[in-house]
Amino acid sequence: KGSNEGYDYCLNNWIETIQRAVESIDDILIDETSVSYEMTACPVVVLSNILTEDDFEDEGCMEESLEDIRMLASQFGSLSSEKLHVDSTSQAVHLSYFGDSNIAASAAAQMDNMVIGGQTISAKVLIDQKGSTTKPNEAKLPQLSVAGVIYAMSPIVYLHGFIEEGEAIDDDDEYEEIVSDLQDMAENVGPIHSTLIPRHAKNGLAFVRFRNMEDVNAAKDCWDGMVIGGLKVKVGVITQRLLQKGSNEGYDYCLNNWIETIQRAVESIDDILIDETSVSYEMTACPVVVLSNILTEDDFEDEGCMEESLEDIRMLASQFGPLSSEKLHVDSTSQAVHLSYFGDSNIAASAAAQMDNMVIGGQTISAKV
Phi and psi of 132, rounded to 5°? Predict the structure, then answer.
């Protein structure tokens, strides 16, 4: 406030600038009130059937529930306010996300039909200030779209090699034990919706549907390359496109009936690999962020050092939006790192703005779209 310099300059000289900008608590309160008023422009998600009678009868219970909801919601994007709003008439919870409607739509899609405390909740995006809403599947989700085809991820993880390919499981006790092992392994990562091991498919595939998308990524990172029963397991995520393969129904229907649809869509690992190769080839349509001055000479001289640095960069970049690929690309000429985000250019631009001029390992990095 009152400065012609940019945010970075003001932050670097914050002691001087804060004393100029804030003469009294009134300056802060006026600013907070303005932000509170203007944040109605942020996309809002409405969560219904998530509060109980106990919450409305006990203030402490309500505070605890709202904190749980805030923690859940913040897994899917940056909330524009720590305070959640409760509609006393509908008993729904309203919360808003920074960014465009893509982020809110993605969050709503992932929370819709979750079971919390024995209740199936509803999550919808509030599109405008007049109160009109749209279902998550009608809203524009963060996705890679090429020629109208959706490549967004589903919450379903596949494991190839969890059971031996070509082997049917005829014994009931053996089958139940294998299913139990898969469920136990999955629940160590996070809450699951259901699992599937096609009993007589002989394709060596097993599937887990998680309740939370962050657990999908965690499972992939944790399990891929593991050796189980002497077999090396390849792990990946089923795309929404593959789940809908051969179906005239929409994504929500296919997800709700995923055990039936996955067995129709995936006859072998080849179906998944073809889909992954197609996505990898076509994802060049995603907005790309270029990070310069982020790698060191040590990275280029030591392969282990490079892998560690790229993993750190991936973890940093994924804080600002869903990456379209776990693999980052290094330009050997400029020594810059290229990474891409699902969604439109707004997401990449926001990520670049937040990473630009960060100081990492004593180096000030540059981030451009």
Answer: -75, 145
Residue type, 107: A
| Residue 209 to residue 157: CA distance in whole angstroms | 6
pLDDT per residue, tens digit, the chain (369 aa), is: 878 877 778 888 899 889 888 888 877 866 665 554 444 456 788 899 999 988 988 988 998 899 889 888 888 877 766 678 887 777 889 888 766 566 777 788 888 888 887 788 988 886 443 333 333 333 333 333 333 333 467 899 999 989 888 777 888 899 999 999 999 999 998 899 999 998 876 788 999 999 887 788 889 888 988 888 888 899 988 988 888 888 888 888 888 999 999 988 888 888 888 777 665 544 445 678 899 999 998 999 998 999 999 999 988 988 888 787 767 888 877 889 988 887 667 788 888 989 999 988 888 999 998
The gap from C-alpha 296 to its chain's centroid, in whole angstroms, comes to 29
Q: Please, which residues bridge with residue 115 across strands?
A: 120
Residue 154's contacts (CB-CB under 8 Å, 6 or more residues apart) are 237, 238, 239, 240, 243, 251, 255, 258
